[in-house]
Design goal:
This is DNA mismatch repair protein MutL. By secondary structure, the protein is α+β, with helices and mostly antiparallel strands. It has 18 helices and 22 strands. Bound molecules: adenosine-5'-diphosphate and magnesium ion.
Length: 594
């Protein structure tokens, strides 16, 4: 019988192995950006086309490669970053497996131009489907310039598996942001289909966060900082107002590497306990620096998990430091400047032999100027605002006493009466109904808007003073994609300078105070595929903006007017989403209680 086992040619083996590393354009972006950082670049440029499906180019000004290294770099297990197994336990570079370039080259067409800092001439190498094509000396800038073209051109099944450009683009942005956030000392830029997406100058960590996520975030950020002997924690959390309902801006890094950890997320969530409405997730950018020997990143190339030796201790460190900072910055109701006893307790348990005060741990000294309060000014303004509101309210009561039926006995009306919690009681024929005027109002608004939007474009209301909205880079892209729809809706907008959107007119009915929030909501959604999709979302936002909550109904006249409008709609019991507008008081059941 003849032998049938064969060794696979390298390029076939690589293609199979590539699946581990290269799932989508974003995986390549991550590997190339990380290689540039490992090569000590100070300026990194990412250029993609078709969400990276047809081109991913990364240009760095790092140390470059020699002619031989450029050729070797594409071999599997070719790395300059480790020599032996012992090195795996103290990795300080991003990569170390030496398989990224081999995998990328196996499933695309790669060109690399590179030159070392002290060489006169560089080299240009071309590899297709993992098969070496040619290498020539070349004039090129110092550093490396990788061009990865036509991803999966030779594996059509996997090419088909890629998602649409919007989704792949989002993944690329995610990877780019993760890398850029952790390296605020490097300059980054990103272009998609020739349009700039990000331009990030070197700066502070705060600067980097704000450059990526927008200036609006800046006043929200609270610094977090704590050093214990073997672990340094720093970064920012956003005040509770900055929390979101969707997962989005939660970033954890260890030694400059992004990672995911539901366990540590929980520590942050716990620090915010009592400060967030249910379902809200805090925004945070947190960086841990610790001895590489205390963590294990060697899990899986695509997995963003990291194993920690002292997980529980880090949990306590996160929880207590954030809690304390929220206290110092006057966000948490009780000012608790002390260290969380849980942290000390855990240190005790983890290292019982180290004595009473955690032994070798440096107990952090927290120096707090208790008189310093960065938000004092803001609070003073708020106080004045509240006083003004209270005055206005009293003036209103004095001016229109007949309209108020909150407190005045003689105003009591049998048919319509306001109850605690914003509900109203209403006698309708022989039934008594408890009304949620907020929900009823929502229905009236959406019905009204349905009939007006059929009439065509909305009236525009010119603003006396134009407003300025500071966009982040993502919002800028979104603005580009929706600006064509805005004029017929009544908006007059233009780009004032680089990231500033100028608003000169808004649709009639949109209050000036609502404009910013409204735009922010419009920009929130990922991508509008069709005009229809945008208009529908717009209409929803518009209805929401115009709707009042049940707490807004204080005056009986307003309640009466709403009930009239609602009656015209047939007094429906439910909203289209199934929520109840009113509830019939079950008098028969109540009678039995007496
Ligand atoms: N942008 C770059 N500049 C300089 N050298 C690079 C660059 N990218 C890759 N290399 C070299 O190629 C080698 C292989 O890269 P890669 O396949 O990503 O493996 P790893 O990063 O795990 O070492 C690296 O170890 C490094 O020596
Ligand atoms: Mg690498």
């Amino acid at each position: 019988m003849s032998d049938i086992i064969q060794l696979l040619p390298d390029h076939v083996a690589n293609q199979i192995a590539a699946g581990e590393v290269v799932q989508r354009p974003a995986s390549i972006v991550k590997e190339l950006l990380e290689n540039a950082i490992d090569a000590d670049a100070s300026k990194i440029e990412l250029i993609i086309r078709d969400a990276g499906k047809n081109l991913i180019q990364v240009v760095d000004d790092g140390k470059g490669m020699s002619e031989t290294d450029a050729r070797l770099a594409f071999e599997r297990h070719a790395t300059s970053k480790i020599r032996g197994t012992e090195d795996i336990f103290k990795i300080s570079t991003k990569g170390f497996r030496g398989e990224a370039l081999a995998s990328i080259a196996a499933v695309s067409q790669v060109e690399l131009k590179t030159k070392q800092r002290d060489s006169a001439l560089g080299t240009n190498i071309y590899i297709e489907g993992g098969v070496f094509q040619f290498q020539d000396p070349a004039q090129t800038a110092e550093g490396s310039n990788f061009l990865v073209k036509n991803l999966f051109y030779n594996v059509p099944a996997r090419r088909k598996f890629l998602k649409n450009n919007n989704i792949e683009f989002r993944h690329v942005i995610d990877e780019f942001q993760r890398v850029a956030l952790a390296h605020e000392n490097l300059e980054f830029s990103m272009f998609h289909d020739d349009e700039p997406v990000f331009r990030l100058r070197k700066g502070s960590q705060m600067q980097r966060i704000v450059d990526i996520f927008g200036r609006k975030l800046q006043p929200q950020l609270i610094p977090i900082k704590e050093d214990i002997l073997w672990c340094r924690l720093h970064g920012f959390v956003a005040k509770p107002e900055g929390a979101k309902k969707t997962r989005g801006e939660q970033f954890l890094f260890v030694n400059g590497r992004y990672f995911k950890s539901p366990y540590f997320n929980k520590a942050v969530q716990e620090a915010f306990e009592g400060l967030l409405l249910p379902g809200y997730i805090p925004t945070f950018f947190l960086f841990l620096e610790l001895d590489p020997e205390k963590i294990d990143v060697n899990i899986h190339p695509q997995k963003t998990e990291v194993k920690f030796e002292d997980e529980h201790l880090i949990f306590a460190l996160l929880r207590s430091t954030i809690k304390r900072s929220l206290g110092i910055y006057n966000v948490a109701p009780s000012l608790d400047f002390e260290r969380d006893p849980q942290l000390d307790e855990i240190m005790q348990k983890t290292f019982p032999s180290k004595g009473n005060n955690g032994g070798s741990f440096k107990m952090p000294e927290i120096i707090v100027d208790k008189d310093y309060n960065p938000f004092l000014e803001e609070r003073e303004v708020k106080k004045v605002e509240i006083q003004n509101l209270a005055e206005m309210y009293h003036q209103n009561i004095a001016a229109e006493p007949s309209k108020i039926n909150l407190f005045e006995e003689e105003d009591f009306d049998e048919d319509l009466m306001r109850l605690p919690n914003g509900y109203w009681l209403f006698n309708k024929g022989d039934r008594t109904l408890m009304l949620d005027l907020g929900r009823m109002h929502r229905l009236v608004v959406s019905e009204n808007n349905k009939s007006t939007s059929k009439k065509g474009s909305t009236n525009s209301h010119a603003l006396l003073f134009s407003l300025e909205y500071h966009m982040n880079e993502i919002e800028k892209n979104k603005y580009r994609s929706i600006k064509k729809y805005l004029p017929e809706l009544g908006f007059e907008t233009s780009i004032a300078h680089e990231n500033v959107l100028r608003i000169d007119a808004v649709p009639e009915g949109l209050k000036e105070t609502q404009v910013m929030k409204f735009l922010e909501n419009l920009f929130e959604i990922l991508e509008y595929k069709t005009e229809e999709e945008f208009m529908q979302f717009y209409q929803n936002q518009w209805n929401k903006m115009q709707s009042k909550s049940r707490f807004d109904f204080i005056y009986k006249a307003d309640a009466e007017q709403l009930i009239k409008d609602f009656t015209a709609l047939g007094f429906p019991e439910f909203l289209p989403n199934g929520k109840r507008c009113f509830y019939e008081v079950p008098f028969n059941d109540i009678k039995n209680k007496f």
